[in-house]
Amino acid sequence: MSLVALGKAPRGFAGMGVLVGLLGTVIWLAITGLAILGVLAVGVSALLAGTVAFVLIQPEIIEVSADMFNVTIAAMEYEDDNGELPDGLDALALSASTMTDPWGNPYRYVIVEDDPGFDVISSGSDGIMGTHDDLALSRIPQVWGEAFKSFPANIKEFGDRLDRLQGHGVRYGRDGHSA
Q1: What angle do CA 85, 91, 93 make, to 5 degrees?
Q2: CATH of residue 158
């Protein structure tokens, strides 16, 4: 209304109305913006905390996935250079740590019919191939799905372990070292 009144004399109160309206709009936008930033900050913090917790609770899955993807990249580069997939991991220029799983066992490389033409398999924590804890490149999506499903139970187990440590007199200071 004040904008309409600016077109007619006297304009004093109309000008003040426009200024008050603009000031109110700026304040409203600032409050809304701060509220949105606050919600985003909480969301990002929760996502970051969940990611850190996942990395701390299940680092083996992350390491196995990274190793398998590094093997995949090296095998694809080998195929580009040589026209065929390598017969085994030894043909690839990979570090020893990339060719062994987090439990110190060598990965098994198998030629298969399915894309990408090979599979990389870890014998898992028990070190025995063909058991329930084996991890395979061809099953990475399922492995990650199972890891996310078991995450709440793993967090609880981790908390129980910390409680047992504290029950034995182990205390941790702010720097993360035992006190």
Answers
A1: 110
A2: 3.30.700.10
Distance (Å, rounded) from C-alpha 113 to C-alpha 132? 23
**pLDDT tens figures, 28-70:** 999 998 989 988 888 888 777 766 666 666 778 888 888 999 9
Residue 98: domain span: 59-167
Q: How does pLDDT run across 104-121, given as a tens digit for each residue?
A: 999 999 998 888 889 999
b/e per residue 33-59 (b: at least 16 CB within 10 A): eeeeeeeeeeeeeeeeeeeeebeebbe
Domain match, 77 and 151 both: yes
- Do 108 and 87 touch, CB atoms closer than 8 A? no
Chain length of the chain: 179
Tokens encoding 52? 């850190």
Cα–Cα distances (Å) from 166 to 57, 160, 162, in that order, read 18, 10, 6
97 phi/psi in degrees, rounded to 5 = -70, -30
DSSP annotation of 89: G
- Going from the C-alpha of 31 to that of each of 21, 37, 38, 44, 45, the distances in angstroms are 15, 10, 10, 20, 21
Q: Cα-flanking dihedrals φ and ψ of residue 100, to 5°?
A: -125, 145
